[in-house]
Amino acid sequence: MPSELIQYPVPWDLVRGLTPHLANRTPRNIVDFTARIVERMNPAPEIQGLHLLPENARFILTANHYQRPGLWILHTAAVLTQALVQRYGPADPPVRWIVTANWPPIRLGPWTIPSPGDWLLPRVAEVLQCYPVSFAGHNPAFTARSVRRILKDARSSPAAIGIFPEGVAGSAGHLTAPLPGVDRFLAHLGKAGLPLVPCGVSEAGRFVIRFGEPIPSADLAASDDAATLAMQRISLLL
User: Fold this and answer.
1) Which residues fall within 8 angstroms of residue 213, CB to CB, at 6 or more apart?
2) How many Å apart are CA 224 and CA 101, to the nearest integer?
3) Beta bridge partners of 97
């Protein structure tokens, strides 16, 4: 990464603008929402390898969890989403992201209080048409329900499924191991016929995303460790 990193302000006004959608449980147009985020990024992000994307958007979009002070993961997801809009047109949603939708509990001395995020973040995910999961090991029943829903939707949904295999442990500048369970999850999606598109996220004077050659669904399903295979392909794009 360059020594002087660009600061991308958090779009708090757009986040606050989700309030009526949260109150009414109505979806926010993802194409418009992410476009407004990306248009504020100066200089504009650079997108490479767009021609490598499959003919249709029925695939797993897999990228490193690129976040640092001054660049929120929301920026990363927004740029990736807009790249798919460029390739496939303004479907709503163009991609359905798998997102962590809880916060650690609040500790006050000997007491532990559930975080408000346990209530709020699943509703934010719903409004943004994402799939919510919990921190690894935090609420396995909740995550299992989401995984079953994703696998069911994967049989017919025309939208890409987006995942950052490292989860919230990932950060800008280095890769970490994929979360437990991601291997089996990706293999199941491969068996459902979805190829995997790796994408490397980095910076070189500007925000850069680079798509790689897709991994065929059969190769993904047959892999000894689909998550490690995906991360290896991502590492080649950084």
Assistant:
1) 52, 198, 233
2) 29
3) 162
pTM higher than 0.85 for the full model?
yes
CB 88 within 8 A of CB 55: no
How many residues in the chain?
A: 238
Mapping DSSP onto H, E and C, the string for 138-200 reads CCHHHHHHHHHHHHHHCCCCCCEEEECCCHHHCECCECCCCCCCHHHHHHHHHHCCCCEEEEE
Helix or strand or coil: residue 48? strand
| CA gap 6, 206 in Å, rounded | 7
Do the Cβ atoms of 117 and 153 come closer than 8 Å? no
Paired tokens of 6: 């660009």
Q: What is the pLDDT of residues 153-186, one digit of tens each?
A: 999 999 999 999 999 888 898 999 999 999 999 9
Residue with tokens 């995906």: 230
Q: Which residues pair with 197 in a beta bridge?
A: 61
Distances (CA, A) of 51 to 64, 85, 194, 197: 20, 13, 18, 12
Maximal C-alpha separation, the chain:
55
